[in-house]
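Collaborator request, handled under Task 6.
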Amino acid sequence: MSRTTIADVAREAGVTKATVSHALSGNRPISEETRAKVLAAAAKLDWVPSQSARALATRRANAVAVVLARDPEVIANDSFFPAFIAGVESVLAETETALLLQVVPGRDAEERAYRALSHGRADGALLLDLRTDDWRVPLLDELGLGLPTVLVGAYDQPTTFSCVRTDDAAPVHEIIAHLRAAGHERIAHVAGPLDYVHSRARADAYLAEIGDDELLREGDFTAASGRDLTEELLALPERPTAILYSNDTMAIAGLSYARSQGLSIPQDLAISGFDDDHLSAHLSPALTSVSSDPAARGRAAARILREVILGAHPRTEIVDCNVVHFRESTA
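Structure tokens returned to the collaborator:
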């Protein structure tokens, strides 16, 4: 019995072989009606395109990459990352593009990973966890057309890459205004690592509102740092009456510690977080937090990367997705 070919699928669908190829690759605009006919014909004939043949024909790997140099504990407890990946995958699935995820222990391994990817392992990359002075951006620029890249974050240095940006400052201003309206004057901020662009944006917004860094502490997004820095702040001779944390993991740990010390939330201490973990609305009291819609960011980043891989000019897109959900933890 002979193997089904692309020509067989084209005959069944009543289209050309080129149309079958374009319908499956997403490299050319194809009507939804035609695409549906092609997919139905392929399913009827039980035909799956050869990945190696597709790669030879397009000179592409049909894959995009994300390289992470993160503490595994942070990845395991980070509500942002799985939602972001889900958003990316929802776009990649349209063209059956694979996502390559590589976790590395440090800078040397991360650099090796990007150089390997630029030699054909992937068609492009999404750059997460942007730093204020990020060595990876000039490296990827050096790799040139070998690895089209989209920067996910408010990167403010000169760059030729596409960016997906969000406004991390506005929610901080909104939360502090809310806390002041409730009578709070000593408001603390437990930030994420301040070399991350999103942590710095939130900390700068806090400093613009408060005016000094007496009650600013730098955490690392883990529960342990949230607990330890809350202990430090509450031990001050004049402790804060409200704490704004840069993620929900630190906020939940801080809330737990404060209650263990006999403080009532929010009567003695108001607490807010960031990223709106799926558990945050179900705590007692429910946690005020900022929903940042990581899936929307993932969709935007993957869509732009696909366009750049196909030859579009780099561009910046601002995703308006940060929404503050005020709950009982800030009264």
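The cover message to the collaborator said: "The radius of gyration is 24 Å. DSSP finds 13 helices and twelve strands in the chain. Please let us know whether this matches your experimental observations."
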